[in-house]
Amino acid sequence: MNSRSASQSGRVVIVTGGGTGIGRATARAFAEEGAHVLAVGRRVAPLDKTAAGHDRITPLVADITAEGEPEWIVETALRAHGRLDVLVNNAGIVSGGALGTLTPEVLQPQIATNLIAPILLTQAALPLLETSGGVIVNVSTSVGQRAWPGNSVYAATKTALELLTRSWAVELAPRGIRVAAVAPGAIDTPIGEHQGLTPERTAEVRKWQLAHTPLGRIGRPEEVAWAITRLASPEASFITGVVLPVDGGAVVA
């Protein structure tokens, strides 16, 4: 642990969607900087991989959309560590579909996971975050600031999360809680696989993403995790309400 990361030492962090991709990288980044991390996800095996070699990461199997689970997750952090300093709302579901093909079966899981669950989990965490002067970091998407034909519902849920970020930043400032968000662009995660895309379709999507990313490459989960840990750090104590693109310049291109 170097001097830059010493400020995370002893802090307690909840990361949802902690089993893969950005969530895994974020859980490990906080742990490497000295924080105790509760990595939340629906599947045991990916969470165990996240925690492997990191004794400060505790896997917690939970469905953040299930009734009572947000409160239970927060209570688990309190029982284990006695406090909560950072909540990272990272979990998300992508299910594409053009207007005219959307069904409740496609819509409801996305809205429940990407939007309702972060609201309820944040509500459950507020008393502990107020006590610690804590931070909420939401994970959005840079595409939410542009059109995304065929995937508008996912983008809409993430755009809503950005509005919540700005609104909560103002609402919670008197309670000593900061709120920020990161908006990743094309990142090397298994999101295509989770979406059910074929390898061929995934390659097409990557080609399109590269063509619209000025830096000309796909980002790494660790680069997003770096942004999350920095926004959550005490050194960022005068930053709130910001949505930080981590997208290789895609939004401004």
Automatic annotation (TrEMBL):
Gene Ontology molecular function terms on file: oxidoreductase activity
Domain Ketoreductase: 11-190
Assigned keywords, A-Z: Oxidoreductase
Gene3D superfamilies: NAD(P)-binding Rossmann-like Domain
UniProt xrefs under Pfam families: adh_short_C2 (PF13561)
InterPro entries found in the cross-reference section: KR_dom (IPR057326), NAD(P)-bd_dom_sf (IPR036291), SDR_fam (IPR002347)
Xref: SMART domains: PKS_KR (SM00822)
Protein name from the UniProt record: Ketoreductase
Lineage, opening ranks: Bacteria, Bacillati, Actinomycetota, Actinomycetes, Kitasatosporales
